[in-house]
Please model this.
Amino acid sequence: MSFELILACGVLVLVVCFAAYAGFMHLFRLISTLQMQIDVAFKETNEKVNNPVVNLDGIKNDMLGMVEDVISNMQPPTAGDHLMGALTQFLQMKLMGSMGVDLNQLQSQLMPHEEEV
Model:
């Protein structure tokens, strides 16, 4: 193997690791922000409603438990997921073409270009 190929692979691995780290840090910030917003909402609700029958802390813990369960069960996409996504996109383009949908016209309707002055 040449030095350039090894260097390129090393840089690619570093970029992927950095992207994964940045993604997880963003996810953890979102979780902590969500938890703070839920705490504030429950605190405000408890101040407005002085009903000891309603257990808002239990509801809050259940909601946070559900969010943590969903996030802990998330998995990065596999090669099969990427292949199925590419196949789906290809099939969608073929079916739209067979139905007579002009993709360029559809794109221009959805995303009109601003006229230059």
Notes: The helical segments are 3-48, 56-72, 79-98, 103-110. The chain has a mean pLDDT of 80. Residues 3-48 form the longest helix (46 residues).
